[in-house]
Amino acid sequence: MAKNTGNIIKGMGAGLVAGVMLGVAGAAMMKDNKKAKNKANKALCAVESFIDNVQDMFK
Fold first, then answer.
1. Between the CA of residue 36 and those of 12, 18, 22, what are the distances in Å?
2. pLDDT score, position 1
């Protein structure tokens, strides 16, 4: 069971990293759009908060 939980967490981490990378790339393409920058920054902060919460749950 512990091995399965570890694999799930690794998969979630990989998905989150991929999502953040796509978000950063999208934000770089829309450099001139201030509203898009703010939304990308908020999304990044939300992902950070989510990761912290998941880590706290498994401690």
1. 25, 19, 14
2. 53
